[in-house]
Amino acid sequence: MKLNFKTLKVHLKETFRTSHGAADEKSVVMVDIDGGLGEASPVSYYGESVDTVNSFISKAMEVIGDDPFRLEEISGKLEKIAAYNGAAKAAIDIALHDLIGKKLNVSVYKLLGITPRDDIPTSYTISIGDPETMKRQTEDNPGYQVYKVKVGVPADIDMVAAVRDATKARIRVDANGGWTLKEAIQKIKYLERFDIEFVEQPLHWEDYEGFKILRGKIDLPIIVDEGVMKAEDITRYRDIVDGINIKLQKSGGIREAFKMIAVARAFRMKIMIGCMVETSIGISAAAQLAPLVDYVDLDGNILISDDPYDGIKAVNGYLKYPDRPGLGVIERN
Questions:
Q1: Could you give the CA distance from residue 29 to residue 83 in angstroms, rounded to a whole number?
Q2: Full set of structural domains in the chain with CATH
Q3: What are 74-104's pLDDT values in tens digits?
Q4: Average model confidence (pLDDT) for the chain?
Q5: How many angstroms separate the CA atoms of 251 and 90, rounded?
Q6: Which are the contacts of 173, defined by CB distance < 8 A and separation ≥ 6?
Q7: What distance separates the 2 farthest-apart alpha carbons in the chain?
Q8: How many CB atoms within 10 Å of residue 272?
């Protein structure tokens, strides 16, 4: 198989701020394997960058072979290149799934035995800003059934109050590990009055004892993100939180994410599928698994102004699947 890759810079419609930092643009790596499309959206706090992705993919070109159907074998070879590099592996895994779907003229979700639905809502993310700006962002993006509000700064309460003032839709909050245990207990107890659905990553991902204590102090469900990258990571959280956030860019692609869903279900945990800032390639790949999970946060392509691809999209806040093989992604004219 012939593998080509290139770096692409996409731009956010507005500055995107979390407790990790702020960004106006994002560099992603696009992969093409014999017409199968994939994407890597690396983030620094997972130890990845465009340079590390390009380096990994350059090495992967030597081991992927000629048969895209040998996914497990290829996955094992990629693991020998480096133990992690989730975004780089995801780009290759996504491209292979897209290629297989195109060869068989079926969608990836059909390959996986998944039935799509037209009633799957995705949340829309409101990033950190002053309360008035966050209220305006919510009002400027109406029609969503769910909004995810980034928190993790001193003005958290006022920020969430402003978003609640702008919408009657469901609200989730995501601190990206930006709270101490004391802050988390105090803020979550106050935020409960705003009819919050759940809180995502309130503490640093390694604060296992903190999660255990926090769960006993609050009524809201806790979802973890940063510390859950592969199926093996789920076990350490099974008794201290309520659910996990799976992202293809962490897990290494569709294949590992599918395994993670099975493990989480066995532990009776809630499952969310999320994303980084990605084009419609990455979002469409994650959306193949959306019918299997409880919560969906696939708005990465909605947040950018210059997505060069068209694929699965949100229409009136619900995922709409195109009638095309593979991921269903095509390049915009």
A1: 19
A2: 3-105 (3.30.390.10), 111-331 (3.20.20.120)
A3: 999 999 999 889 999 999 999 999 999 999 9
A4: 97
A5: 7
A6: 148, 149, 150, 151, 156, 160, 191, 196, 199, 200
A7: 57
A8: 23
